Amino acid sequence: MTTITAPHAHPSPAQPAPSLTRAMMPTAAEIARGRRRLHRKAGYISVLLAGSYGALVFAPVGFWLRALFGLVLAVACVSLATGVMHDGNHGAFSTNARVSRIAGWSSDLLGASSYLWRFKHNKLHHGNTNVVGYDTDIDQMPFARLAPQQPWKPWHRYQHVYMWFLYGFLTLQWFLLGDLRTLRSGKVGDHALPVRPRRRDVALISFGKLLHLTWALLIPMLFHPWWGVLAFYLSISWLVGFLLANIFQLAHCVDRAEFFTPDAPRRGADFELHQLRTTVDIRCKVPVVRDALHWMMGGLDHQVEHHLAPKLPHTTHRLAGPRLEAVCREAGVTYRVHPSITSAVRSHARWLRAMGRRPIDPPGGITP
């Protein structure tokens, strides 16, 4: 199923969808069990991260074992971002808002401000998924054209080649550029922060940057040559960025999702249909691969369920998924899903190539 939405196509208000979220929701007991699993998983991730970091920095081993520890550390960082930070910043980690906020602050350990991330991700992305001009996650200009309504540049014809490499710089962009630019301008893209950060907020953001710099670079440099530490840091950071970027792209920037202009209805009764048209799940038939991906992706192989109910702990998504698929089938609403991880990757590759082609001007010479 390949769909490229016309610039002014909207979800049809005639399709019945307002009850889809309620129909898929786990029970209170299932949510409580899922949250306990989430807390245990957070403990496992913490042990994995601390163990791999300790072995990488302090163990007297050779290059290849150190590289293996670095690989495990990268997986632990990705799992921390998807399985702890993400739930925390959505308020899904705990029924206690303060505990969720502490879990969300783990993004600061990874170099990205949780304070700014909540506005960029929770408000702009979730509230305006794949809406050009609002969803800053699909705004990768001038490097990439990810929606048919975005302007085309000659170098975009090669984006299906070079963007895979650029994805790896996501975390460095968070740490060095994105957050600092937002603080200076008071905006994320063209959208002003709802409240200017207080001195306390700026201090916490700065402290998070310093904490990341300390554990990731300064402490290792006490035990190893600076050039070796920098090489490992850039390699691990690139891998973390590459994996995190792809987790998002495979759900939204694919030829099975749709893109809209700012006048698209996406609130109230239109919310569910909009999310179903702009978000795609991933399935995998191989149990071991499926479980490993689900664990590392923090349940974001079920992005549709997450977008409909972002306060659900991700450890309940597997319960919600089959229910949502069944109720969508009954209601005649399209439920978009990649049948495998390789299918998802190919779908994103096709989309990059399609958006990289020079668009044909419609009548009147206006390029979408």
UniProtKB/TrEMBL annotation:
One of its GO terms (biological process) is lipid biosynthetic process. GO terms for cellular component: membrane. Residues 1-20 are annotated as: Disordered. Residues 64-337 form the Fatty acid desaturase domain. Coiled coil: none annotated. The chain crosses the membrane at residues 42-61, 161-180, 201-223, 229-248. Keywords: Membrane, Transmembrane, Transmembrane helix. The keyword Transmembrane applies. This is Unannotated protein. It comes from freshwater metagenome.
